[in-house]
Amino acid sequence: MATPDPLRALSFAPIKPHINRNILLYTPPTSTGEDAAAGGGPSPKVIVLTTWFGGATSGRIAVYCRAYQRLYPQTPILIVRTQVTDYSLANRQLSAVQARLSPAHKYISSLFPITSPPTSESRGHRQEGALLHIFSNGGCATALQLGKMLRRSSRGEDASHLPIPFVGLILDSCPGMLAFDNIYAAASMQIPQSQPLYSIGRAILWPYIKVYVAMQRAGIVTSSNDVMRDLNDSTLFGLGPRLFLFSKTDTVIAADDIAAHAKQAAELGFDVRTEVWEDAVHCALPMADSQRYWNAVEAFTSRALSGRKAKL
Questions:
Q1: pTM score, whole prediction
Q2: Domain total for the chain?
């Protein structure tokens, strides 16, 4: 008997499978007043996960989804899986990438219809907003493209006029500078581990990554510098707080890069909190200390929803 897909078992399903099967949605069952009360305090209106390039299997993504379903049982969860093919040579035009993201864009926009210009009171009010959880630089690239699509839905470039009120950003194992070896290591995690498929896959991947890095340097595709700069652009995700979760022993993205970016975000006026693991694998922090990870996420989200500053 085939093993059931872990995400399907959690009631996730593609929104528009004919456009992109890697955009999946979990919609909580209709609840009674008693059910809603059992969910505890305030919750985000939607949780959006943009996943990493390598090794983002359904089983690994399900770890995060299962925890979010427990923390916020009445909140929809949208998964946008980042695939190497989404940023392949054939799809290097951002218009092609954004077309594949259109189901996510339309769904998020439907939750926050623009009915009137924001008031001075509503501009600082983040309750019932979207919580964005980003994994690695691959998830950053996807989140940024989605953010640019949402910004075009806005009536202006001012961060206070964003159509989507973001509760805050959680950045897991990102952002950072990626050299050839780092990208190759991350992308190789998507290859089946059994031989000879693994060796064949790595051989095919090597020249593609070489070309991709060259295209980054030439400015043809988004570079790591672009990603790090744009994440601190308040016209994309607003002025909400940021939580950085990372490990000192990450072999894909250097901890110093993430720490430097977090420091820059704080200097720009963002409310920043960091949680640093002494020894954990890239995009697998809950495996090292699940309780610490989810305590940090829950505390951050609670403060963000209430508008309180982080205690560093």
A1: 0.85
A2: 1
